[in-house]
Amino acid sequence: MRYLEEFRDPGLARRLLDEIHATVTRPWALMEVCGGQTHSIIRHGIDQLLPEQVELIHGPGCPVCVTPLEMIDKALAIAARPEVTFCSFGDMLRVPGTEGDLFRVKGAGGDVRVVYSPLDALEIARRSPDRQVVFFGIGFETTAPANAMTVHQARRLGIGNFSLLVSHVRVPPAIEAIMRSPRCRVQAFLAAGHVCSVMGVEEYPELAGRFGVPIVVTGFEPLDILEGVRRAVRQLERGEHRVENAYPRAVRAEGNPAALRMLAEVFEVTDRAWRGIGTIPGSGWRLADAYREYDAEHRFAVTGLRTLEPAACRSGEVLQGLLKPHECAAFGTVCTPRTPLGATMVSSEGACAAYYLYRRLGPGAAAATDKEATSVG
């Protein structure tokens, strides 16, 4: 309760910024691993309020953006089948595959539906026993428990015409992959509070110690992010590398035991490809053997796909924190929300979408978007 009272203090933002400015003595690079945090940072100009020595690097924290191209192509192939009702959250419908997206499949007559929960898809399957209903299960540890529970329910209720196209990924292996990269500049991490609310923080101390990086769990509001930056900078200046929980109103060290039990029953850890990054060992989940009959990849045996990323798209470098969106030549010119080359421009959590929406534009992109806005008007 005391924390919440401090959070409501109208002078807290100024004090946090003052302390950060007073603490910094040298350049530091911090990475947020959450697309929601990226949008909050850009929307509120947090990166512009920080000392120039503190750089915020945008990491692979957008679940839509990191869904591999091969999985998008598999979704397109399954959704185009006449016996299939393909269900997904809305932000997946415009993610480009090698050829087209789910909107194009829908326009060609495919039964593609936007749902708000995997349980909505399960209910469609229950009411339509003559259809094969597939839900596109993507995302980090935050969304995985709901998808696991839905498959569990399908088996318990005997709904055999439901399946899950699984593309779940895990944050800690991604942090390790980033730190192992020879091009890595990251010196501290802001960990995603919603992920840790499910998983807890037990996987992070080993990473912090092995790579010598502070990891601060934080939320998504501007004050949450400023508090996370303050703690990370304080550790860096002191030569420390610990895990701190700056989001105690939502995160407990042990996480959510019920969600963890469901994940352990329904899923098993596997290697997973990340779009624009490549395969990261142990970075994803797949359905366990006991639930394999509900695996859409297994059920529809979609194989032999040839995937091809647009040559001009540099979203992989954006996702690795190696490139800011407006540093890409295609950004805001040939790649816009209307004509996206990659998922980072489509998703509501994508870094490119944030830069475009909040006008963090390069000179060429600014001219192109002004022209687009005029034509729309």
UniProtKB/TrEMBL annotation:
Pfam families: HypD (PF01924). The gene is hypD. This is Hydrogenase formation protein HypD. Keywords: Iron, Metal-binding. It comes from Streptomyces orinoci. It comes from the Bacteria. Belongs to the HypD family. The keyword Glycoprotein does not apply.
